[in-house]
Backbone:
């Protein structure tokens, strides 16, 4: 047995994604947006593909709904073996149709997750480094229903 705790793969920020990681480090979610036509761009791009405008990172609500999801049963990714099975969802944010972000679902068993579930973003520390990542928790109204 390896005595060292397993750590998940660490992000490798580049010029396009640095703004995202700076925001999560500060505890909130920001996504890339065109300064000119105001379109949100995910994944982030240096230039807007619609109008070729300059882009920058701006805060988003982090609220949205589950667009699709998978339930992970196999210990394929180091660092999450003790949490199996867990759910990874693609969440469509309220800001714009098609603006989707992947992340783990927390606070629910896999069989409680469904397409259309309303979720909110939380920013949590990623084990093994200084990065923080976005995860999704059910919105309170969902827990009551
Ligand atoms: Zn644009």
Residues:
């Amino acid at each position: 047995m390896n005595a060292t705790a397993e750590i998940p793969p660490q992000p490798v920020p580049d010029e396009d994604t640095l703004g995202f990681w700076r925001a999560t480090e500060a505890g909130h979610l920001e996504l890339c947006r065109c300064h000119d036509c105001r379109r949100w761009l995910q994944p982030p791009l240096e230039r807007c593909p619609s109008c070729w405008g300059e882009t920058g990172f701006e805060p988003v609500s982090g609220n949205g709904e589950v667009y699709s999801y998978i339930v992970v049963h196999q210990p394929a990714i180091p660092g999450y073996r003790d949490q199996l099975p867990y759910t990874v969802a693609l969440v469509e944010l309220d800001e714009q149709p098609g603006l989707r972000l992947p992340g783990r679902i927390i606070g629910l068993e896999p069989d409680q997750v469904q397409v259309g579930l309303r979720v909110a973003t939380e920013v949590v520390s990623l084990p093994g480094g200084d990065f923080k990542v976005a995860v999704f928790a059910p919105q309170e109204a969902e827990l009551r229903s």
Remarks:
- The chain has a mean pLDDT of 92.
- The pocket of zinc ion is lined by residues 34, 36-37, 39, 48, 50-51, 53 (CB under 6 Å).
- The radius of gyration is 16 Å.
- The chain has two domains: 12-59, 61-145.
